[in-house]
Amino acid sequence: MQIAEQKLKSNIAEYILYMYQIEDVIRAYQFDLDKLMDNYVKPQLPDESFLAQYRKWYSSLLIQMRSEKIETSGHLMSTKEILIELTYLHNTMLNLTDNDKYKNIFAAANDHIEEFKSKSNLKDKNHVEIAFQALYMKLLLRLQRKEISPESEEAFDTMRMMLAFLSRAYVRMKAGDLDFLNN
Question: What is the pTM of this model?
């Protein structure tokens, strides 16, 4: 909960990846709040004074996921809305601004994104969503302690740089500090 709030304010890409992970954790515990709290949340808390806050937050996520019918797959509408904003920002920086730095970063990532798209079931997704899915897959591979080839690491790195640049621009945009006319 506190981690999510911090990431939401400071690094939107990390927030999205974190929320993907939390959704999967909730699914792994089969929406059983007591088991989730006892086996996943409690061991991570510095002390039990935060327990009620976390229970309320996870309970709210469980309710949202059920009401949005994403018990087996999919993402929370609030996360999808952020992805839409990031996609608009991505398209704006590519097509309506003179942000050559972002255009170069995207150009370096684009072939890898297209390759990932062709090898996955994400054919209807946009570049931003595909990059997030790829990086989430990398996170899952690391958690499973699976080896990642140097070529894949390089591909993931180009997508990470793209999303990092986009995240910094998103924070600036939300703060009102991003001027699209004078880039």
Answer: 0.91
